[in-house]
């Protein structure tokens, strides 16, 4: 999978339209595996968390999660300690956070991966790059990494809800700087989640082998991709991982109108240890299509009634390998959806935040969730 990402990065695709305003470099390849072989393949030194020039067209950024997290946490911890020192009253949540050492920062759910994704977001919006290729292989569950910003945002809101943060800042000036910092983290998490599901800026590519194991895994991958709303653009079938017929993967069932391209990557008899050989693979990573995918393509329709008689139906295309493992919950303005063991927060459209869930079902292609107004909070005419 790393080889496919590297080969896609060294390729020179035709770009649509003009480069981003101010972009003076072409491609940034990002790897988040501290043991990644990419530096050796590209013939450069490994320099964690620093951008290394490979060629005029390609640059490499090797991110180390722990180093990035502890460095960012050190700055935040100083702010926490200063808030505790200046406050005349005990702030349990702040005291708890301030007591977390840099070495223990990974105990906060999702923070390590969320800070990692924030760094990638910063590069994406810097205006320096025409494209960024991110390799998420070698780190276990890539969907947990991609969902980390939403996970951290939910954890912050559970530990210290925003309305309480604002109230504390109004009552205690010493807390205002801290609440501003936490709100900045919250906004960063929201920005990253929005960028990942934006079909105009992001294209997701799934790399699989062509054997029985990949055939079994494909529906599970698609379920996670649908749930997170990742704009899946291509499925890269790596023939070096297995030899088998394409029909075994069920890729022929993918609707061409969905914008998902199926590409085969040939197995070569030479070691892929330099950019020139990577180019021989002919890997092409299609550009973003502009089509929203999965939960990012959710729709809301109503029955045409008014007042408390109105009902709304929220739906989105969703693969479900095992419908019995679908679970739904509600946390404030978020819908908690668990699919195939992966839980994700789907922000509710504003019209549904004053509603309660009535029922839900899956028709084989899409999830449908019906809502009715909550009389206690529904506006009266």
UniProtKB/TrEMBL annotation:
Residues 319-371 form the ArsA HSP20-like domain. Residues 87-208 form the ArsA/GET3 Anion-transporting ATPase-like domain. InterPro entries: ArsA/GET3_ATPase-like, ArsA_HSP20-like, HSP20-like_chaperone, P-loop_NTPase. Pfam families: ArsA_ATPase, ArsA_HSP20. Coiled coil: none annotated. It comes from the Bacteria. Belongs to the arsA ATPase family. This is Anion-transporting ATPase. It comes from Gordonia otitidis (strain DSM 44809 / CCUG 52243 / JCM 12355 / NBRC 100426 / IFM 10032). The lineage of its organism: Bacteria, Bacillati, Actinomycetota, Actinomycetes, Mycobacteriales.
